[in-house]
């Protein structure tokens, strides 16, 4: 059987495949990525690059991928749920391929784990946190507490240590009792270790942007998205 080949549209200009893909799926799935050149994690930054997403999707199709994801959470939710859906439709129409977004991924992951009341930890500045809150509420979730690290630098998010992520998750979870689970939002954060630690410590499921993005793309492509030892989202899941 040929190795599946999936496409990623990523915010940084370098167009590197995020580390979670190989960590989750090893040689099972091949990933190719193209970068958008996002200048900053803000509405201003998103507006500079959002119109090039469909073109990147077409270029990935030409590389032979069988499904594509826009692997930027805030890039796909900043204009709301309807815009996210329209973006997905336009990518699919232009390529003829199954397409998804990281905003779909976090919603699908939370629903899969039966999380409705959610504590939210992000990398974002306040304006982006407000956009995320609206997106989650429109999608049927109740964000009980939501706090960000106030990072707008695209490169800085990848350098946030695991301890800082764990501490923020614990803070938002304890801020208002009753959360069914935790969301870590921002695809640039490196979170697999934090996900495992927080799930063990707090005994609730954790959905994080980048791992969920790969999980969602694998399912969109009709593949087995399981990856044992990588958190509850990857313990058992069928294709979409």
Give a description of the structure:
- This protein has ten helices and eight strands.
- The model has no long low-confidence stretch (mean pLDDT 96).
- Helix content is 43%, strand content 16%.
- By secondary structure, it is α/β, with parallel strands linked by helices.
- It has helices at residues 20-25, 43-49, 53-62, 73-77, 81-95, 102-112, 126-138, 162-175, 192-202, 209-220; strands spanning 5-10, 30-35, 68-70, 99-101, 117-122, 142-148, 181-185, 206-208.
- The chain has two domains: 5-101, Rossmann fold, CATH 3.40.50; 105-210, Rossmann fold (3-Layer(aba) Sandwich), CATH 3.40.50.
- Helix 6 (102-112) crosses helix 10.
Task: Specify the biggest β-sheet.
Answer: 4 strands, parallel
As for the number of domains, it is 2
Q: Enumerate the spans where pLDDT stays under 50 for 5 or more consecutive residues.
A: none
Helix count from the secondary structure assignment: 10
CATH architecture heading of the largest domain: 3-Layer(aba) Sandwich
Please report which band the strand proportion falls in: under 5%, 5-15%, 15-25%, 25-35%, 35-45% or over 45%.
15-25%
List how many beta strands DSSP finds: 8
| N- and C-termini, Cα separation | 21 Å
């Amino acid at each position: 059987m040929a190795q599946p080949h999936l496409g990623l549209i990523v915010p940084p200009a370098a167009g590197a495949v995020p580390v979670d893909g190989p960590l989750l799926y090893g040689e099972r799935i091949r990933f190719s990525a193209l970068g958008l050149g996002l200048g900053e994690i803000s509405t201003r930054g998103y507006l500079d690059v959002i119109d090039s997403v469909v073109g990147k999707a077409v270029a990935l199709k030409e590389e032979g991928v069988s499904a594509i994801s826009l692997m930027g959470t805030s890039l796909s939710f900043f204009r709301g749920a309807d815009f996210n859906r329209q973006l997905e439709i336009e990518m699919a129409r232009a390529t003829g391929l199954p397409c998804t977004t990281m905003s779909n991924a976090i919603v699908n992951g939370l629903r899969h784990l039966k999380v409705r009341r959610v504590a939210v930890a992000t990398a974002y500045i306040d304006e982006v946190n407000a956009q995320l809150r609206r997106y989650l509420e429109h999608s049927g979730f109740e964000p009980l507490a939501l706090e960000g690290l106030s990072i707008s630098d695209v490169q800085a998010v990848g350098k946030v240590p695991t301890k800082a992520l764990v501490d923020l998750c614990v803070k938002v979870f304890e801020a208002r009792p009753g959360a069914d689970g935790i969301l870590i939002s921002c695809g640039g954060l490196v979170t697999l270790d934090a996900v495992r630690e927080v799930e063990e410590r707090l005994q609730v499921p954790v959905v994080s942007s980048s791992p969920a993005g790969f999980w969602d793309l694998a399912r969109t492509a009709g593949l087995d998205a399981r990856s044992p030892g990588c958190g509850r989202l990857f313990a058992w899941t069928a294709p979409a």
